[in-house]
C-alpha cells in the first residue's frame, strides 16, 4: 500500500515487479506467496466481534486481489506468470495443483500462490513455508519492510541489534516475531533456510539471492 492508508499502490507493485524480473533474468526459479494485510487482515475483524473463520476467508480473498495486481504488473514488463488459488476461483485464476505449479516453474513462469493455505487460522507465513516445502524450494525469502531480524522492533527501539544468522530454535526460544511459529517449525522440519530481507531497499532482493545485500538467515 506504500504511503496510502490502505489498498494497492500501483507504483509499489511496479517496483516489486521490477525486482522480481531481475531475479527471473538471473536464472532463479521463483514462486510467490502474497499477503493481504494492505486490504484486510482476518484477525483484526475478531476485535469487533467477527467470527475468526469468516474474517480469515475475507483475508484470503484480499490476497487474491494482490496476486492479480502483481501478475498484471509482471506481465506488463514481459514476465510470464500464473496465479494459483487455494480457494477455487476459476473465473480469475487456476486452482492450486502442485504438479501443475511445478510444471509452470520448469517452463520459466513465475507462480503466484493466492489465498494462503485455503484454511482459516493459518497465516500467509505458514502458507509460504508450506508452498516452499511442496515446491522443493532451496530457500524461503521473507521479503518485508526491515532488512533482517532484530532483537526488538527497530522502528521503536533504536538500541535494537540485527542478527546476521539465527537457528530455527533461536527464533522459537526468543519468541522473535519474524514469522509464525508454525511457519518456522515447518521450514525447520523440511530443512529450508529462511532469508529475511527488505523488499523496499533498491535491488536488495537480487543482491540477497546472489549472496550479497542485507539479510538475516535462519537455518540449522
How does this model look, in words?
- The chain is an alpha/beta fold.
- The chain folds into two domains: 1-123, Acetylglutamate kinase-like (Carbamate kinase), CATH 3.40.1160; 138-220, Carbamate kinase.
- Helices cover 39% and strands 17% of the residues.
- The protein contains eight helices and ten strands.
- The protein has helices at 10-25, 42-45, 52-76, 98-106, 124-134, 168-173, 181-189, 204-209, and strands spanning 31-33, 81-85, 94-95, 110-114, 140-144, 149-150, 162-163, 165-167, 194-198, 215-219.
- A four-stranded parallel beta sheet has the order 1-4-2-3, with helices on both faces.
- It is globular, with a radius of gyration of 17 Å.
- The chain starts with 9 loop residues before the first helix and ends with a strand.
- The relative contact order is 0.13.
- The mean pLDDT is 94.
Structural class: alpha/beta
Outline type: globular
Looking at CATH, the homologous superfamily of the largest domain is Acetylglutamate kinase-like
Q: How many domains, in number, for the residues?
A: 2
Order of helices and strands: HEHHEEHEHEEEEHHEHE
In total, how many beta strands?
A: 10
CATH class of the largest domain: Alpha Beta
Query: Measured on Cα atoms, how large is the radius of gyration?
Result: 17 Å
Poorly predicted runs are: none
CATH architecture descriptor of the largest domain: 3-Layer(aba) Sandwich
Query: In percent, how much strand structure appears in the residues?
Result: 15-25%
Task: Please estimate the helix content.
Answer: 25-40%
Main sheet specs:
4 strands, parallel
Strand order of the largest sheet: 1-4-2-3
Mean pLDDT: 94
Helical stretch tally: 8
* CATH topology term of the largest domain: Carbamate kinase
Distance between the termini: 34 Å
Question: Which assembly state applies to the chains in this document?
Answer: single chain
Amino acid at each position: 500500500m506504500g504511503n496510502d492508508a490502505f489498498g494497492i499502490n500501483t507504483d509499489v507493485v511496479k517496483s516489486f515487479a521490477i525486482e522480481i524480473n531481475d531475479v527471473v533474468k538471473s536464472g532463479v526459479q521463483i514462486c510467490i506467496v502474497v499477503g493481504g494485510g494492505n486490504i484486510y487482515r482476518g484477525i483484526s475483524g475478531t476485535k469487533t466481534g467477527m467470527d475468526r473463520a469468516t474474517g480469515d476467508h475475507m483475508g484470503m480473498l484480499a490476497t487474491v486481489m494482490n496476486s492479480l495486481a502483481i501478475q498484471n504488473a509482471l506481465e506488463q514488463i514481459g514476465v510470464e506468470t500464473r496465479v494459483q488459488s487455494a480457494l477455487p476461483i476459476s473465473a480469475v485464476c487456476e486452482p492450486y495443483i502442485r504438479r501443475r505449479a511445478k510444471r509452470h516453474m520448469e517452463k520459466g513462469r513465475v507462480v503466484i500462490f493466492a489465498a494462503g493455505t485455503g484454511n482459516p487460522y493459518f497465516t500467509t507465513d505458514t502458507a509460504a513455508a508450506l508452498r516452499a516445502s511442496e515446491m522443493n524450494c532451496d530457500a524461503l525469502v521473507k521479503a518485508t519492510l526491515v532488512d533482517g531480524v532484530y532483537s526488538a522492533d527497530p522502528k521503536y527501539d533504536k538500541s535494537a541489534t540485527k542478527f546476521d544468522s539465527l537457528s530455527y530454535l533461536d527464533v522459537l526460544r526468543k519468541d522473535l516475531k519474524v514469522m509464525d511459529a508454525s511457519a518456522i517449525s515447518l521450514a525447520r522440519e523440511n530443512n529450508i533456510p529462511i532469508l529475511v530481507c527488505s523488499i523496499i531497499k533498491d535491488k536488495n532482493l537480487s543482491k540477497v539471492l546472489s549472496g550479497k545485500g542485507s539479510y538475516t538467515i535462519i537455518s540449522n
